[in-house]
Design goal:
Helix content: over 70%
Order of helices and strands: HHHHH
Structural class: mainly alpha
Distance between the termini: 75 Å
Number of strands: 0
CATH architecture: Up-down Bundle
CATH class: Mainly Alpha
Radius of gyration: 21 Å
Strand content: under 5%
Number of domains: 1
């Protein structure tokens, strides 16, 4: 493999990494570290902004294939972001916002106060 092929593969990997980061942040795929689907649109926008900057900084330096791959990836991410931004924010369930021990303590305190 020559250096140009290697750089193309590395570029594709870089774009794919930011794509996966944005998709996880939009809640489209599970986070492999937590095995949960989480939604953080600020983080998703950050990943998209980095890819937009990468596109601007590499303009005229990419092969046609690399440029199309970056354009298509960015287009899909932006459409998904718009779709997610239109959705209402999901309220967190009690068990997602505090550890189970704190929930039990809160329930016990509430039960004691009611008596």
């Amino acid at each position: 493999m020559d250096s140009k092929e290697k750089n193309t593969q590395l570029f594709m990997y870089l774009v794919g990494s930011f794509e996966m980061s944005a998709m996880m942040a939009m809640g489209k795929i599970k986070n492999p570290m937590t095995d949960k689907t989480e939604r953080d649109l600020t983080q998703a926008q950050f990943s998209i902004d980095i890819m937009d900057m990468l596109k601007e900084k590499t303009k005229g330096q990419l092969s046609e294939y690399e440029a199309k791959f970056l354009d298509n990836t960015l287009g899909q991410l932006k459409l998904n972001y718009i779709d997610e931004a239109k959705k209402p924010e999901e309220p967190k369930k009690a068990d997602e916002t505090m550890p189970a021990e704190e929930i039990k303590e809160t329930e016990n305190t509430n039960n004691t106060e009611e008596k």
